[in-house]
Amino acid sequence: MIVIIGFIVVLGAVLGGFTMAGGHVGALLHISELIIIGGAALGALIVMSPKKVIMDMVKGLIQTLKGAPYDRKAYEELLKALYEMFMLARRDGMIALEEHVSNPANSSILKKYPTVLRDPHAVEFLCNALRPVVDGRVKPDQLKMLLDAELTAREEEHHAPVGVLSKTADALPGFGIVAAVLGIIVTMGAIAGPPEEIGHKVAAALVGTFLGVLLSYGFVHPLASNMEFIGAAELAYLRCMATAIVGFANGLAPIVAVDMARRSLSSDVRPSADEMEQMLKAINTAKG
Questions:
Q1: Domain boundaries along the sequence of the chain
Q2: CA 127 vs CA 73, 76, 109, 139: distances in Å
Q3: What does the pLDDT look like over 141-152, one tens digit per residue?
Q4: Considering the entire predicted model, what is its pTM?
């Protein structure tokens, strides 16, 4: 929603200033210029991108319109879910987590926290992080290296669609010049016509340059930056999870492991120590 509002502000500022200067919005409406610029940009994007990157980009663009889901509530539910799992493992042994790891969709703990359960990347990372510890395949001090490797791979996946979209944005002004040159060629073919017709064709050619620059710096570049921030927000969410799991696997008490994860969060999503104490106390009370 914020992205859409931002686009409206950009478009409103440009068109508003144009009309205030005496221009007519109709003079900017040239479908042929949009087809040249948009089609060329789309074709270049397809040429430079593997199929997976294109699919990830589409998903990322949809997510930018929805906004990042990792708000304060999401982190509070994550910390509570981790605490419940750690308490269960402390009480009944790590093997007690096997049913939650092998079938997270039916986990009695995760079902209480929908923001965690409906995020497939988070659930997959959580299960991948706990499964080696539950199975005893890795030692606690080896777990951090394992999770760091996965986080690095996920970070590279996030950067790929952002990089492609940024390169497409950089190319848009050039495609705008291509559209302008084509417009000038059309104008030269009608040079013997009346001045009004020539002026109209020259204006259409200049609109190509205008659209290329506007689409690049007013729309596509901001979208790429927004996708990058959303990717960083997801990685921060997964790192919070990894911090708690590594701490617990290395022998920290459940409340200390969760508190260590809380301390790693940025201030806008980090609950205070008192707030976390109240959250965890409510869990203990409900179980008692």
A1: 26-287
A2: 21, 19, 13, 16
A3: 889 999 999 999
A4: 0.86
